[in-house]
Amino acid sequence: MSQMPQLSACPSCEEPLESGDRFCGACGYDLSAVPERPQDNPTIAMNGSVPTQGAPAGAYLRAAPDAGPAWTAPGPDGPGAPAPAHPPTGVPGTGTGGSALPPGTPPPPSAPPAPAAGVRFDRPPQPGGHAAPAEAEPPQPDEYLLQAPDPRVSAEPAAQAAGSGGKVCVACRAGRVDDDGYCENCGHAQPRERDHMEQESGPVAAVSDRGLRHHRNEDAFAIGSTALPDGSPACVAIVCDGVSSATRPDDASAAASRAASESLLTALPQGTHPQQAMHDAIVAASRAVNSLAAEPATAREQGPHQNAPACTIVGAVVTSGLLIVGWVGDSRAYWVPVDRSAPPARLTEDDSWAAQMVAAGLMNEAEAYADERAHAITGWLGADAYELEPHTAAFKPDRPGVVVVCTDGLWNYAEGAEEMARVVPLDAATRPLHSARVLVGHALDGGGHDNVTVALVPFPAVPQGAGSA
Questions:
Q1: What is the Cα–Cα distance from 136 to 192, expressed in whole angstroms?
Q2: How do residues 151-173 score in pLDDT, each as one tens digit?
Q3: CB-based contacts of 419: which residues, under 8 Å, 6+ apart?
Q4: Rounded distance, CA 5 to CA 8, Å?
Q5: How many Cβ atoms from other residues are within 10 Å of residue 246's Cβ?
Q6: Which residues pair with 207 in a beta bridge?
Q7: Whole-number Å distance between alpha carbons of 312 and 397
C-alpha cells in the first residue's frame, strides 16, 4: 500500500493543513484520495550504443563483410566533408554508437545512470504529470463515431450495388457518396483521406488506419523504390507517429515521413552508403518538423500548455544484401524470416521510459511496459527536443524475410518478435499489401486504441512489378 503524500495545503480549498491530517478541517476533503506524484524523470539515458534488447543470437543475422559497393564516403555533404554530429559507423553489423550486433548483456543495475535528456508523453498528461492510459482517454466528439472501413473487407460488391462504380459509403456499404462527402443512402459523412491509407511501390507496401478510439490519424508513412549506382534495387520505408500531446502531430508526422523519404531516394542513387543516407534522412526529417514550429498556424492553434509539433520516426532501407534501420522514438522495426523455423528479431530499441528501465536492469520488460509511464518517450523529432540523436544499425540476413516497420499502434498488440512473427502472414514477402492489411486488422480486432501504421519490405526485394496478389 502506498503512503499518503505529505501536503501543506488542501488541494480542494487550498486551506493550510496540519501534519497527519486525514481530512481537511475547512472543507472535509479526503486527503488520502490524493495520489503520490510519480517519478516522471527516467534515471538512465538511451542512445545508439545500447544493445538491442530481445534480439536472439544466431547465425541468421550475421555481420556484413567489409567488401561491398563503392559507397560515397560518409558525411553530410559528400566526400571530404566534416562528419555529422552523430555519424553512423558506416560498417554493416554495428549500431550508431559502434556497438556490436547482436546484443550483449545490458548494463548492471549498480552502474551509475547518465542524466536523461528529457521526457515527452505520447498521450495528453493528466494532473500529476503522467500520461493517461489508453483506456482512460475521453470519448471523442459525436461527428467522429463513424469508423474507417475494415481494410480486410472489399467494397467491390457494394460498388456494384451502388451502380456507378464510384465511392461507396463505409457505413451502409450500399449508398453512393456524393461530392460533398455524404452517403446518399444513409446520410453518413465519410472518413477523411488520412483515416485509412494504403500504398504499394514496387515490392514495398504500407497501410495506415485511424483506429477505433482516436478522432484523427496522426501517423504517416512514405515508401518508395530506387536503383543504386550499380543498377541493383533499393527499397525504402519510413513510418512516423505524431506525439499526441504536441501541437499538430498529424502535420509533424506527414512532414517527417515526406522529408526522410525524399532524402533517401535522392542520396541512394548517388552512391551514399545506406547507413549514412538513413542518418541524413532522419536529420532532414527533424528539420522539416522543426520548421512547423515557426509557422503562423502553430501560433494560432497552440496554447500555453502545448508543445511544439513532434513525432517519432523509424525507417528501413533494403538493398540486395544489406538491411539498414534507423529510428528516433518508440516506433519499431522487426525482422521476420520466411523460414519460420529461424528466429525473428526486433531491430530497434525504444527511446522510452520503459526501455530505459529495462536497459538499466531496474525492471523486467513485462513490468516496465505494464507501467503507466511506459510510453513516455525520451527521444523525438521536434523543435523542443533536447538533442537529436538518430540511431542506425546495419544487418546482413543470410535468408529471405520481411522487415515490419510500424508504430506502437500495431506493436502494442504484438510486442515481442515471436508475437509479431505469429501474426505476420506466411506469404508476406510476396503479398506485402495483403499482409499489411492483415496486421492492421489484427490491431483493430485487439481494440484499436491508437492509430495503426505498418510498412512491409521484403528482403531480398522481389522484382519490380511483382506487387501483391
A1: 25
A2: 555 545 555 544 555 678 877 77
A3: none
A4: 10
A5: 28
A6: 198, 454
A7: 26
